[in-house]
Design goal:
Elements lengths: L11 E4 L4 H5 L6 H14 L3 E3 L20 H11 L4 E6 L6 H10 L3 E7 L7 H9 L3 E7 L6 H14 L3 E5 L7 H14 L4 E5 L7 H10 L4 E4 L13 H10 L8 H12 L11 H9 L5 H12 L3 H10 L8 H19 L1
Parallel strand pairs: 1-2, 1-8, 2-3, 3-4, 4-5, 5-6, 6-7, 7-8
This protein binds the ligand C[C@H](O)CC(=O)C(=O)O and manganese (II) ion (MN).
């Protein structure tokens, strides 16, 4: 793969600071924070911003973490604030249901992103049907896409296209891809899909989120995701303000105001952040072992409570090929590692 971007086009940019960033924020966003971020993103020219619990509509729970404020109030706050940008929500079948989707439409969403494991697109048929019935722009998210080869993902994307998806994303949930991996996966979807466009969602666990996004664009990606300050699960996502500057330099700026985004990252997002995600020891382990980025804070917390190294927990989850929705494994693995260590000490 060469880095020649001459075939790439300016992408549609979706900001997910208020959804993927909700993982980093431990789902504690307030409507006031949503208004501040939404205003800044809208003024800087993003096409859409995604607002919901990090695990999507209906995610507020013991398993995934309780939201501080009802996500419908957050969606409403975003919709009331924006003048141009569309408001989106994420829905994971099995977590979110028709009820939450209907409420989210009433609260103001115009687009829904339906996320399944990259092996399970077939569970999304009804959800795409509902989304189209409700007049939404419908986007498919193939999570943990590093786990399967390009041709397999293309088959899954074709299913989503058949169900009505307007766009299908390759989602590097584990931030485990190298640029070549992102390139080949996006290219396979571009070649296979006849109607739907193709998107790419990066995580920065190996420090490659912007590079992988560029590789996706080179392969023809039409849509890309980013967040202010990269605020998101694991080491975060592609930082929007950095991506905007890079796209601008590459002649691929879809109309983002780079300096407004730099100000938004510094002065709006800076004071809101609980911490600045970066590829720290545990996040790199996530990318290296191919683990779902959202497990990071759960593993850190459980590791601290039980006195088990989070890195060991994450590596073991990678060995077991755990995927989204298996958050209960984190505790189980930590307890097993603790037991094993106690056994080894007793011997
Ligand atoms: C529900 C997930 O957090 C979706 C996502 O952003 C990813 O898999 O990455
Ligand atoms: Mn993500």
């Amino acid at each position: 793969m060469s880095w020649d971007l001459s075939g790439a086009r300016p992408p549609v940019v979706v900001d997910t600071t208020l959804r993927d960033g909700s993982h980093a924020h431990r789902h504690q966003y307030t409507a006031e924070e949503v208004r501040r971020v939404a205003r800044a993103l809208d003024e800087a020219g993003v096409y859409a911003l995604e607002v919901s619990h990090g695990d999507g509509l209906g995610g507020s729970s013991l398993q995934y973490g309780f939201s501080r404020q009802d996500e419908m109030e957050l969606i409403r706050a975003a919709r009331e604030t924006v003048k141009r940008a569309k408001v989106a929500a994420l829905l994971v079948p099995g977590i979110g249901t028709r009820k939450e989707l209907k409420e989210a439409v009433e609260a103001g969403i115009q687009m829904v992103r339906i996320a399944t494991q990259c092996t399970e697109a077939d569970i999304s048929e009804q959800h795409f049907g509902m989304a189209k019935e409700m007049g939404l722009l419908a986007v498919g998210f193939l999570m943990m896409s590093h786990m399967r080869p390009p041709e397999f993902l293309a088959e899954q994307a074709l299913l989503m296209e058949g169900y009505g998806a307007d766009v299908v994303y390759i989602v590097d949930s584990a931030g485990a891809m190298l640029p070549e991996d992102a390139y080949l996966r996006v290219k396979a979807l571009k070649e296979a899909l006849t109607r739907a466009q193709v998107g790419f969602h990066a995580h920065n666990n190996l420090g490659l989120a912007v590079a992988n996004t560029l590789a996706a664009l080179k392969a023809g990606a039409d849509w890309v995701d980013a967040t202010l300050r990269g605020y998101g699960a694991g080491a975060g996502n592609a930082p929007l303000e950095v991506l905007a500057a890079v796209l601008d330099k590459a002649g691929l700026n879809p109309g983002l105001d780079v300096f407004k985004l730099l100000d938004a990252a510094e002065y709006v997002m800076g004071p809101i952040l609980h911490f600045q995600p970066y590829p720290d020891r545990d996040s790199v382990a996530i990318g290296y072992a191919g683990v779902y980025s959202t497990f990071l804070l759960h593993a850190k917390r459980i590791g601290k409570e039980l006195g088990v190294d989070p890195l060991a927990i994450l590596l073991e989850l990678g060995r077991r090929q755990a995927v989204a929705g298996q958050e209960d494994w984190i505790l189980r693995v930590a307890l097993e590692l603790k037991e094993k260590e106690a056994g080894a000490l007793a011997d």
